[in-house]
Amino acid sequence: MNYVISRVLKWLFSMTLIMIGIRFLMMASDNNDVRPIIICIFSFGAVYVMYRTRSEVPKMIGLLTAIVFVGAMLAARYLYIDLPVFNYGFYFAWWAWIMALGLPVMLLGFSRFGGG
Predict the structure, then answer these.
(1) Distance CA 2, CA 47 (A)
(2) Residues of the chain with pLDDT > 70: what percent?
(3) Less Cβ crowding at N or C end of the chain, within 10 Å?
(4) What is the DSSP code (8-state) at residue 114?
């Protein structure tokens, strides 16, 4: 079980880094400034280093990740149940939905498909 929890924590950390990278990429696009791109490169690079071999991520885990990522994005965009609580903006709501949806889904996914 420790192996599964460590894999889920690694997944949550990588999702946080991806969200940071997307946010700073959008900041660079909105402000026509190249300075935020360095943080974007570092965050995407850290995720690449964490998962540099494809054998570390089974296909079902990749599919579950894509489903959680897109589902959390749609939930943050169209469900406003987090607005009175957080009200920090779209990217924080997206991150909170990824944490709320991703934790149970990936716990089940890694325990079933992750080889742990």
Answers:
(1) 21
(2) 89
(3) N
(4) S
Q: CB neighbours of 13 closer than 8 A, spacing ≥ 6? A: 50
CB 100 within 8 A of CB 79: no
List Cα–Cα distances, 6 to 3, 9, 10, 12, 116, in angstroms.
5, 5, 6, 10, 10
Helix (H) or strand (E) holding 6: helix 2-31
Instruction: Compute CA 60 distance to the chain's CA centroid, rounded to the nearest angstrom.
Output: 16
CA distances from 16 to 1, 32, 95, 113, 114 (A): 23, 24, 7, 22, 20
Could you list the beta-strand ranges (E) of 3-113.
Answer: none
